[in-house]
Write a structure and sequence with these properties.
About 5% of the residues lie in helices and about 50% in strands. It is mainly beta. It has one domain: Methylamine Dehydrogenase, Chain H (7 Propeller), CATH 2.130.10. The chain has 1 helix and 28 strands. The strands form 7 sheets. The protein has a 4-stranded antiparallel beta sheet with strand order 1-28-27-26, with no helix packed on it. The radius of gyration is 20 Å and the shape is globular.
Amino acid sequence: MIEKLVLVIAALAAWLGVALGAQAAEVRYYELPRGARPHDVAPDPRPGGPVWYTAQGQGALGRLDPASGEVVQIELGPGSAPHGVIIGPDGAPWVTDGGLNAILRVDPATREVKRWALPKNGNANLNTASFDADGKLWFTGQAGIIGRLDPASGRLEVWKAPRGRGPYGITTTPAGEVYFASLAGSYIAHIDRKTGAAAIIEPPTPQQGARRVWSDAAGRIWVSEWNSGKVGVYDPASKTWKEWKLPGDAPQAYAVWVDERGAVWLTDFAANAIVRFDPKTQAFESFPSDRSGAMVRQLLGRSGEVWGAESGNDRLVVIKH
């Protein structure tokens, strides 16, 4: 009887360890200057390195030191309204600035701002960017364009996107291929990197509002579907789709990012939460903000960490997992 009781206790302890392990994540918040309205965030890939964010409300690029909590903002110029920021192959933050209608590079050491202006034929409403395998920077403009910048030569090219308005999220696969999502067009597309032509790939759900995209290690394209509240994945190898509805009555999937373990992270405006999706178990886990109105519009991360910008609360959030 005693032996059976010991076995039961041991089994229960093991079960609790697994259950608690699944929840073992540390959430931390960092306050930013009031009115910053951080839109996108990009952590330096080095462990403990600085975390950059676009202060869209103040026309600046912010730099957070996670160890000390120190925040410094670098002014980008009169009229600036930065949207996206990523860390380039050169280790510098690259910014898509809708207010300046330009691509910016900020030197992380000198804080010098270099600018590449788009053609003066209307505001592109710049959104996000991604480097391809050749070191070219591809970017989207919600006004209906996709573009490419060659940092080496300074050559900047722009093409009209299929169906006009809508290009939003963009990603590069491990093989160097570039895909983008069109929010207004409700599609994702593969870009021919030689010609700039975009081939539409239709998700299974009509008018789903594909907002952001991210490639996993296998080159599959994960999509946050704003209108449908689903997360979808497209496999270019098999040309097949799968979709899952986020928990809740009316989810709104905004951002998507895939970590080094293959877990898919999303933001849900309706739930005021960051959500983790396990493709193997098809289970969702929610991390609600401790303040209402967080409005996390984008996610990026590094090993063991996922970072988001709480645009509604002037904070950055990190989940260490």
